[in-house]
């Protein structure tokens, strides 16, 4: 009789231990993760009963909670919703949350560990719960200039602008955009209908092209990475000479590479240089220098700039891709930003920022401060080094070549020139293969650069889809469309 009782007692005791362990894991260890899960509908609905903190730009709210008088108490509102949607994201009953609304949810909702004692005191004092506000790094002039430049011309694409010395993100745009207000009402049926319409829109307004979505072939803007690898390794310098044929048969392959002009690089002489290859965006000299280095040299340099690495700003960023080429032919094709090389505009802005900042890439970030309801600074974010892919000497050399890419006669990025300002830049035109009928798909157009060269205040990356779209017959050029957008953004920052 005693033996069965002992077994039963031990079994019950074991179940209590398991229950205690499970409750501990749920309530303490995994609590923050479960609260932050975008599928947790209870968290979202409870969140509407809290006066959620605001998202601020220069102290002005671009997202805030307004009282409603209904069971939810508050509704999320967005000022200039489409302008800032790539930054704020949305906060919705049925669709969860994205952007800073998601990444900073614990602070905005007042549910973070840092606000634990504040919540207790508010409960004891009968004070209604409130979340903290967050001050972003966004420069409204840069953001507005970027969106205006894209929207006025009917362009689909994205712009990212970064302060090279700190990593502060000054602009983060994606067009076409959407209005987060249509997903934040207290009418679930309306939200679902609006979300379905946005989701089915062929222009994909919900994609944040600046940091995610379908990544782009970077095309010739990737040549900056190749040049950095060549200079850093001692393989080549600006004046290193290369054979200058009009076409190049790739080794162990039937493929033949051409320059975009289908002619020899630059003035068509028998030889050309690395600097001319960047200035006139020639493919063949870049492929030649890439094949002279180890196959892992360029991918390793790309990774040092951030390719393939996880990054949160604090919004999660889709990693860019620069895989190891299998052979020399692949090394040549990937060196001009084709094959399996893919990048976000944020990543290309990081490349330009690193060159601008003397070889040091600062970690990009989107939030300056977290501010409590009683206006105390609860958290302050400081600049943080991300990587140092090249020496200052190499960075200065590449910066000089990029400056020639704007200032030299006939240079492809010359439309980025700003009177009285030294500007560095690089254009890119990426091929996207063919459709089912064998027709070439529209190119992806790029520009990246920074200014002023002698004291960089802003680095920018611009991507434009589908050759500029219908308004440009899908065959627009990178020398004018993205370059003009980048110039407007840089001017907006420099004029302040």
Model description:
The protein is α+β, with helices and mostly antiparallel strands and 496 residues long. The chain is built from 17 helices and 21 strands. The strands form 7 sheets. It has a 6-stranded mixed sheet with strand order 3-2-1-6-16-17. The protein has a 5-stranded antiparallel sheet with strand order 8-7-21-20-19, sandwiched between helices. A hairpin with a 2-residue loop joins strand 1 and strand 2. Residues 157-472 form the Penicillin-binding protein transpeptidase domain. This is Penicillin-binding protein.
Overall, the morphology is globular
Per CATH, the class of one domain reads Alpha Beta
Supply the helix-strand structural class: alpha+beta
Lateral arrangement of strands in the main beta sheet: 3-2-1-6-16-17
- Overall mean pLDDT: 91
- Radius of gyration over C-alpha positions, nearest whole angstrom: 26 Å
CATH architecture of one domain: 3-Layer(aba) Sandwich
Largest sheet: 6 strands, mixed
- Within CATH, the superfamily of one domain carries the name DD-peptidase/beta-lactamase superfamily
CATH topology of one domain: Beta-lactamase
Q: In DSSP terms, counting alpha (H) and pi (I) runs of 4 or more, how many helices?
A: 17
């Amino acid at each position: 009789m005693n033996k069965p009782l002992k077994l039963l007692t031990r079994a019950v005791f074991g179940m209590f231990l398991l229950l205690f362990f499970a409750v501990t894991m749920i309530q303490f260890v995994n609590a923050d993760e479960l609260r932050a899960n975008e599928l947790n509908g209870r968290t979202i609905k409870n969140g509407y009963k809290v006066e959620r903190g605001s998202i601020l730009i220069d102290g002005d709210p671009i997202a805030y909670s307004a009282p409603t008088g209904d069971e939810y108490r508050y509704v999320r509102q967005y000022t200039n919703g489409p302008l800032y949607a790539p930054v704020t994201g949305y906060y919705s009953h049925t669709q969860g949350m994205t952007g800073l609304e998601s990444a900073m949810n614990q602070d905005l909702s007042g549910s973070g560990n840092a606000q634990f004692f504040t919540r207790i005191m508010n409960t004891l004092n009968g004070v209604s719960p409130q979340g903290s506000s967050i001050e972003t790094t966004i420069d409204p002039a840069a953001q507005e200039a970027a969106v205006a430049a894209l929207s006025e011309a009917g362009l689909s694409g994205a712009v990212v602008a970064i302060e090279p010395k700190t990593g502060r993100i000054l602009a983060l745009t994606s067009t076409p955009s959407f209005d987060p207000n249509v997903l934040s009402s207290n009418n679930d049926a309306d939200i679902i209908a609006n979300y379905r319409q946005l989701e089915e829109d062929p222009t994909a307004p919900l994609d944040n092209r600046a940091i995610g979505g379908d990544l782009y072939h970077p095309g010739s803007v990737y040549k900056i990475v190749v040049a950095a690898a060549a200079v850093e390794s001692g393989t080549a310098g600006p004046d290193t000479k290369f054979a200058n044929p009009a076409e190049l048969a790739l080794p162990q392959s039937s493929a033949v590479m051409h320059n975009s002009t289908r002619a020899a690089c630059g003035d068509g002489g028998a030889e050309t240089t690395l600097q001319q290859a960047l200035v006139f965006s020639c493919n063949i000299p870049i492929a030649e220098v890439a094949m002279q280095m180890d196959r892992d040299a360029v991918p390793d340099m790309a990774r040092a700039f951030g390719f393939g690495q996880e990054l949160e700003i604090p919004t999660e960023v889709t990693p860019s891709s620069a895989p190891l080429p299998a052979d020399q032919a692949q090394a040549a094709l990937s060196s001009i930003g084709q094959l399996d090389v893919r990048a976000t505009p944020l990543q290309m802005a990081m490349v330009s920022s690193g060159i601008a900042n003397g070889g040091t890439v600062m970690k990009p970030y989107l939030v300056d401060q977290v501010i409590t309801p009683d206006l105390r600074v609860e958290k302050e974010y400081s600049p943080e080094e991300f990587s140092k892919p090249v020496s200052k000497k190499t960075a200065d050399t590449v910066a000089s070549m990029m400056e020639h890419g704007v200032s030299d006669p006939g240079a492809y990025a010359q439309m980025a020139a700003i009177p009285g300002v030294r500007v560095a830049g690089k254009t890119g035109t990426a091929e996207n293969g063919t459709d089912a009928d064998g027709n070439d798909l529209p190119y992806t157009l790029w520009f990246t650069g920074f200014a002023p060269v002698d004291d960089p205040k802003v680095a920018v990356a611009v991507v434009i889809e589908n050759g500029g779209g219908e308004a440009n017959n899908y065959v627009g050029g990178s020398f004018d469309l993205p370059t003009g957008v980048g110039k407007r953004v840089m001017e907006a920052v420099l004029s302040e």
